[in-house]
Each structure stands twice: as C-alpha cells, then as structure tokens.
Amino acid sequence: MLEMRPDCERCGTDLPADEPGAFICSFECSFCAPCAEALDDRCPNCGGELMDRPSRVGKALANNPASTERHFKG
C-alpha cells in the first residue's frame, strides 16, 4: 500500500492524498507537479521516473490514512 507522503520533498508543498498533483518514484519519493517538471520527471534521490500518484479518497482514505511524516529537508 502506498504511504501517501504529505509533502513535496523539494519545496515542502502539501500533497493531500485525496487530490491529484503528486508525483512519485518507485520508492515513493514524492514531489509536486512543478518540482517534478523542474526535475524532468526524474527522482533526484534514485534516478527513477516520476509518475502520477493515484488519489486515495472516501472510505479508502478513512480506513487507510495518509502518512503525516513530512520529508521536506528545507
């Protein structure tokens, strides 16, 4: 199950689990759309491709909440 990280690792922007606009690599490093574009859709951590992260909504989100651990290093 995806961790659904709550923020962009590059700029700290919030990435709500129930909204589109987050991009992840296969290790779930998470970035907002502008940062993913600036990174040419490549993860700076592993070099993997950044892909659209699916949303988690409704009962699925209630039963499986997103992570609250932020990863922005500032």
From TrEMBL:
InterPro entries: DUF1272 (IPR010696). This is DUF1272 domain-containing protein. It comes from Sphingobium cupriresistens LL01.
